[in-house]
Design brief:
Layout (H helix, E strand, L loop, with lengths): L11 E4 L2 H11 L3 E6 L4 E6 L2 E7 L18 E5 L3 H10 L6 E10 L2 E11 L5 E12 L2
Parallel strand pairs: 1-4, 5-8
Antiparallel strand pairs: 2-3, 3-4, 6-7, 7-8
């Protein structure tokens, strides 16, 4: 897959085991490689319009000691077309969901936006929230 346009914000996730993480993102979650530098243990991956970089931890830009779970205090929302299908796929590979599939309504000014969403952690504990847009409705 060629990278047509780089997003304005692309998280770069450090991994304790690059191969295990890349396998999880590609095989389990369905991401595709846009480009990679295998000799540097780095890959730029995409799922729909979502873009993430994964790399072997190398202490180059660390702001402190890396301890699992990585990414504490942050979750990455990734919009998908079929959240329930992806949740089933992840569980079929033997991974547990961090939060089960549910429908949530979030207020945006005078509108509520409905989504079906779930959360899962990657092998290093980065928290991923997969979200499928349902519809908008007026605030009750």
């Amino acid at each position: 897959m060629n990278l047509k346009q780089q997003a304005a914000l692309v998280p770069e996730l450090s991994c304790s085991d690059f191969s295990a993480n890349l396998d999880f993102y590609l095989r389990v979650l369905g991401f595709e490689i846009a480009f990679e530098r295998p000799e540097r243990k780095f890959a730029y991956i995409t799922l729909g319009q979502a873009q993430i970089m994964v790399k072997q931890a190398n202490d180059f830009w660390n702001t402190g000691e890396m301890q699992k779970p990585y990414g504490r205090g942050i979750n990455f929302q990734i919009n998908v077309e079929n959240a329930s299908g992806l949740a089933e796929r992840i569980e079929a590979f033997g991974f547990q969901l961090f939060e089960q599939l549910e429908t949530s309504w979030y207020r945006i000014d005078r509108v509520e936006r409905g989504v079906t969403e779930f959360l899962v952690q990657d092998p290093d504990g980065h928290l991923l929230r997969f979200s499928q847009l349902l519809s908008d409705r007026p605030v009750a």
